[in-house]
Amino acid sequence: MQTYTAIAHTNIALIKYWGKKDDKFIIPFNNSLSLTLDRFYTKTSAQPITAATDSFVLDGQAQSGAALSKVTSFLDILRAETGSTQRLAINSTNHVPTAAGLASSASGFAALTLASCAAFGLQLPRRTLSRLARRGSGSACRSIYGGFVEWKKGQDDLTSFATPLAANEQVDLDIAMIALVVSAQAKKVTSRQGMATTVATSPFYPAFVKSCETDLLAIKQAIDAQDLEKVGQIAESNALKMHATNLGATPPFSYFLPETLVAIAAIQQLRAKGFLCYFTMDAGPNVKVICRGQEALKIQAELQALLPNTEMLLAYPGPGAKIVNSESLKE
Ligand code: ADP
Ligand code: DP6
Ligand code: CO
């Protein structure tokens, strides 16, 4: 039997997706904009099988219950959309902490989409792959592409997909991200639950959506102008506005840990010393520092001195998702 293997890199949003207008199809309230990273990725293999049900192994562990059904429901969507009836054995490895706010769902569902569609015998345009990956996890639609990527919210299944900012998916801006791993533990409130609670209950939510429009326009201009200072300022402010909506939710919640605030204080301290460094944060306590690629090692060393017990992982712009093999499975 053949096996089909795909690699997809994670992406970190500079303008955040935080809320669904349509939960079933995962249509967001606002456009978002991300950077795909070289350092963190998922590698997923899909093998056509004759068994009655799909199987899913993640990081060497056979999955069952909710973890398995999340994948099989997604494969059901792929089968319904493509007309395939093929069951699959999925084997995936995350080279990124799972469910820790480092976007494993983005690389995970992007890799799963590519590997599964290849195992169904399909060669689909990337826009279709982006739309399909979106049905697994919204942020996954952006991991189909490399570099800076915008998810155009659209208004329905056909019109909601990601596109790369530059046609060649290269990044001209000298940018890097340092992930400060405050905790690699799985979060208590998943992105899905967190954003649903916020959309339904936070009076701050409409203000966040509105400001995303302005932030998106401004950050695209700053990227064009290669103005990293501006990019950092806008991204940091957008992330903090997103996190502020959670404090306004009922019940209120926050992804911040005490260590998160310590890390932010260290970044502010470096900034006060004249370093160009800003941060963004997703649905988890980890902080991602935005800085120049050329200064990244220096900034990492400065931060490490201030935060000696924090693991730091340096990432640069990364490529889009791709099929890496379709060899016969020998094991
Ligand atoms: P994260 O911050 O890591 O994206 P989320 O709460 O958004 O956290 O999503 C985590 C979920 O994504 C996992 O519980 C699992 O359902 C799914 N996921 C993560 N990695 C993979 C993978 N390699 N293949 C399929 N699904 C995955
Ligand atoms: C804070 O894509 O993980 O990282 O669509 O429910 O699977 P689901 O959520 P997910 O949400 C990501 C939220 C975020 C911001 C972003 O990546 O834009
Ligand atoms: Co996620």
UniProtKB/TrEMBL annotation:
Superkingdom per UniProt: Bacteria
GO annotation, biological process: isopentenyl diphosphate biosynthetic process, mevalonate pathway
Domain Diphosphomevalonate decarboxylase-like N-terminal: start-end pairs: 8-162
Keyword Chloroplast annotated: no
Pfam families in UniProt: MDD_C, MVD-like_N
GO annotation, cellular component aspect: cytosol
Gene Ontology terms for molecular function: ATP binding; diphosphomevalonate decarboxylase activity
Enzyme Commission no: 4.1.1.33
Entry-linked InterPro entries: GHMP_kinase_C_sf, Mev_decarb, Mev_diP_decarb, MVD-like_N, Mvd1_C, Ribosomal_Su5_D2-typ_SF, Ribsml_uS5_D2-typ_fold_subgr
Domain Mvd1 C-terminal: 178-312
Keyword RNA-binding: no
Family affiliation: Belongs to the diphosphomevalonate decarboxylase family.
Full protein name: diphosphomevalonate decarboxylase
Species of the source: Agrilactobacillus composti DSM 18527 = JCM 14202
